[in-house]
Amino acid sequence: MPHINAAAALQICALLSALPAQYFISQWYGTDSAQRIQKTERLIIASWRSFTKSCLSLDAWADRLKLWLSKTRTCLNVGLLISHFRSWYYGEKKTKSGDNEAEIHSYFAESTHVRSPKPDYVQFSVGQVIVHKRLGYSGVIVGWDVKANTPEEWLQHKYPPAKQDLKDTPHYRILINKANGFGKSTAYIPEEEITIIMGLEVVHHPDLKVYFSGYDGSKYIMQPWLKKIYPHD
Fold it and tell me: Which residues form the Hemimethylated DNA-binding domain (predicted)?
């Protein structure tokens, strides 16, 4: 029996696999040119759709960003990154101070300037669980402004002439409990529309751990970066 080396064995295997490979290819592409062209077009279209869905979709990139942020261990850096990204997304304005430094003022209680001292008329605190008096959804406070701090267009839409006085009352940014199925993940609402719930820990939201490290029985415990912004809450 003749000796067959590795190279010869590889050549024999390639020859033996050629026939079944040709059979499967012919089954896939059909027996005539029209079928081959039609199936090739379908393959190209399907590949393009898959590419655009995974690489050209804003939702896909947002999911990748959220996954990356969830794996980041430094909460301070994560919080600041989210704050700056949202500031850019919702719109921001810059003003120059006397020493020529730019200060960023974010809308919707996302400004990183320190809330100190805390006015007595701001009744609620970051970390408290709330329920909306009229709509019934629950959530947790992650920020507040002494009065509504939003684009003028938002204020005009939110507050008709009969409710203009609400613009000057404290407003709170809320992470809405996903278990409510409300359809929105956050809200920015005036103080008179919410009430506090004591002893309720269960708030489900994908960003909860970015803002809080745990629950102490009465409210959620702020992450260090958030505590620096709200030192009196």
Answer: 121-223
